[in-house]
């Protein structure tokens, strides 16, 4: 047990040291990071600890691991801090953020969507429909796929990435609502109406329906 705690503390220390070097500007965005043996020597730890630390950094979004090629610095801003801040926001703040981020993105999706986007949305909605009256966790996971594809249809990578980070807050809100309020078919049907508005390129109607869904 003690050896396990020691290993975890070493990984945490390695992660902290590498985060410091990133914030200090030791590496440039897009730059290939030193190899595991080099980092192990520089940090005075084992290669296995370096490997686990790199996985933590990759999970938080700072580093991209390319199999067979090495690890690259993805960003100097730690997304984990933003994710943690989002997880602490109040339900009211979460709703406000969804109105600003999700509804506006769906309005753009109505203007920019492609036929491939529409097919992906239809497929996701069909899967969600099959889970709506079943297990809540399974439905929430399916519903998030549909909403992410709606945002992705705006073809703005920044919006898509923001929504991926924010989706954990959306999932928690959905889970809470579905366990405290009886499921309403009319609420689910709003998803199909949003898809129809996106298909018709009706941005204002798509945004209005999205806001109605957020408030439901």
Compact overview of the structure:
The chain is mainly alpha-helical.
Task: Describe the structure in your own words.
α5 (91-112) packs across α7 (136-152). It is elongated, with a radius of gyration of 21 Å. The chain is mainly alpha-helical. The protein has helices at residues 2-23, 36-43, 47-59, 79-87, 91-112, 115-131, 136-152, 157-180, 185-199, 203-215; strands at residues 63-66, 70-73. The protein has ten helices and two strands. The longest helix is centred in the last third of the chain and has 24 residues, at 157-180. A two-stranded antiparallel sheet has the order 1-2. The mean pLDDT is 85. It has two domains: 2-77, Arc Repressor Mutant, subunit A, CATH 1.10.10.10; 81-215, GntR ligand-binding domain-like (Four Helix Bundle (Hemerythrin (Met), subunit A), Up-down Bundle). β1 (63-66) and β2 form a beta hairpin. It is 74% helix and 4% strand.
Adjacency order of strands in the biggest sheet: 1-2
Q: Look at the structure and give the mean pLDDT.
A: 85
What is the 3D form? Answer: elongated
CATH topology of the largest domain: Four Helix Bundle (Hemerythrin (Met), subunit A)
Number of domains: 2
The CATH superfamily of the largest domain bears the name GntR ligand-binding domain-like
CA-CA gap between termini: 48 Å
The helix-and-strand class reads mainly alpha
Helix tally? 10
Main sheet summary: 2 strands, antiparallel
Nearest-angstrom radius of gyration? 21 Å
- Helix-strand pattern: HHHEEHHHHHHH
CATH 2nd-level architecture of the largest domain? Up-down Bundle
Please state roughly what percent of the residues sit in beta strands, choosing from under 5%, 5-15%, 15-25%, 25-35%, 35-45% or over 45%. under 5%
- What is the total tally of β strands? 2
Unreliable stretches (pLDDT < 50, length at least 5) are none
